[in-house]
Amino acid sequence: MNFSELFKLSGLLCRFSPDGKCLASCVQHRLVVRDVSSLQVLQIYTCLDQIQFIEWSSDSLFVLCAMYKRGIVQVWSLEQPDWHCKIDEGSAGLVASCWSPDGRHILNTTEFHLRITVWSLCTKSVSYIKYPKACQQGVAFTKDGHYVAVAERRDCKDFISIFVCSNWQLLRHFDTETQDLFGIEWAPNGCVLAAWDSCLEYKLLLYSLDGRLLSSYCAYEWPLGIKSVAWSPSSQFLAIGSFDEKVRILNHVTWKMITEFEHPATIASKKTVVYKEVEKSPSAETETLSFSPTRVLASSAFSTQSKYEISQVPISLQYIKPVADRANPKMGVGMLAFSADNCFLATKNDNIPNTVWIWDIRKLKLLVVLEQLCTIQCFQWDPRQPRLALCTGNSRVYLWSPAGCVAVQVPGEGDFQIVSLSWHSSGDSMVLLSKDNFCVCYLEREEV
Q: Sorted alphabetically, which Pfam families does this protein's record hold (predicted)?
């Protein structure tokens, strides 16, 4: 495993291009585009204000930079560096911006969610979508890019509109049986749309492309309800993380629950492998390191190293009792992710913040528990193989695969606290992000 040097960064804005050839990052009001293989700077674009959001077009030819404070979006071309586009929403303001799947239209959401404006880069035409709902996940495109679903709120009722992306014509418009629609997400095959209520009401609804209600699901009534939702890549399973510290798996045939995964504070099953991170002081045995020990020890200033040990069960995990009288209590399953091959599901229960749970979807049972020393900040699956990367706000990156797991210290001067990470589409590298810097981590194909 090799690491690049550290580069400056603002706002955790660093993205690989969809074709995997470029890496875009932001430093204040500048957009820097690098070649992924050499990390040489290809282009530097200067925006009108500090950049708050960036996104690549689907064909990797354009980069969108949004400056919400100014109500402005600027678009830059990689093929024609002199060409640029500026969209000014004026007094309407701007709270969100994104590309359409064709990479030639931009959807801007105005302040107070009065409307979504669809701008065409080709014809300079403008379309409007009225009454978009102010919710966490209110716009969802199908994976093939043919359709977009928009959550709407009008006359104190929730609706969903489905538009054809080629001409922005309305395909279907229907009301939902929700009190306060919180999010929508298409299945990867584009056949089913999941819509779920806010945490005050446990309700998940599944709609077909033509707006028919296929099924509704409610696990319980009065306590706080749904916290997170994730489709499996094959569209066969829908995982629902709830405030009661459980994950429920629905199947795609009957849309009924096939199992539920609990997250207890004590692991008792001998069939579950528990990897516990332990710190060890740097020893004199530095010659066993595969890279230059002088560089590592000098850069980490004799910092403690860490490794994984297999714990004997039963084992008690660090459990934090949530503060009941605060908004957004730290409880329930807040993070969910399926592996690319559909075989594994990784979860995090916010009551047990230092632990990642990995479930075997083929056997529908708990396979591995990773107990870290610090709170899990982010985890993400390799897009090509069952390999999970995670970070905990320190200068180490952690990898798990069915072969085992490893903790790797990022060599570098200063305190590089990794709070987010993102895989390259090839699975051969990933970008590690701290508040002010980023570096690229290169992996060998056979590495754990």
A: WD40 (PF00400)
